[in-house]
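Methods, example record. To illustrate the input and output format used throughout this study, we show the complete record for HNH endonuclease. The sequence lines were provided to the predictor; the line carrying structure tokens was produced by it.
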Amino acid sequence: MGYNRNIKEGTKRMLYMKSGNLCTWCKQRLVYSNSSNLSEICHIEAVNEDGARYNPNLTNEYVNSYENLILLCANCHTLADNKYNENACSVEMLKSMKCAHEQWVEESLMNKPVVEPPIKWDSYDLRWVCDLYEKYYSKKIDNEYVLKTFNAMYLFNIATRSILYAIVYTCSENRSEQIDVQRVHQMSGLDLYNFAGVLQFLEEQKFIKEEKYVNEDDGYEDENGDFHLVKRNYLFKTVNGTWYLKKKSRLLLLIVSYLRDYNRFYNFIVNRQMHLLFDNEQ
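The corresponding predicted structure is encoded as:
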């Protein structure tokens, strides 16, 4: 009878983020700024009984899970799902290709320049951002604070800005200032050590904060009864801590609602397209 086709939105977003907006097979760009979309989500083990690589011993949940999906362009999807190519396009081959592609995307992001040229904001009036902040939080900020926040963000490397985007994006979706660290880590595609390093940097830059382990004597006992302090152990704090947005990221949370579009917000943060703040079509 086959399986139900029901891919969760969060799974789709993770697939697009980890693929780097590229076909996993041919590396063709998939989604363009003019809204053209050449992407197709392919099931590695098929949904339907007559599909390529169909396995009757799975569950609906697994069939539509991230592990069983691969992002392709239309041409590569056709090749992958052609029954005549089933031996060449095996489950093992597609999963291996997907893993290699995601690793390549991660390495490409991390190898971007660490420092990019500063943005000149002199000609822009950002007082409306101050008014927006006061409206929602009943606290005043000035134009200088907004400029310093945006300038600091735009000096982060692209990998750090991508994770900052994911943090604010997920908080916006959850309507909460508490960060879903596990979900952001999955979206990032980074290994835990690199991800923890980015969280440490963002906390040092006062964009986020960890609130569970804040005292000098906070720690835990291991299985041998030995006590370990964790104030500077960001790997432990990443996994076990409780993370929240700070003032700078709350400001970005308001920008999401102003832009009304996560793609535009992504371009504003990750691609440094500051003009989006001033040509927003309300």
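Annotations derived from this record:
The chain has two domains: 9-110, 127-277.
The mean pLDDT is 87.
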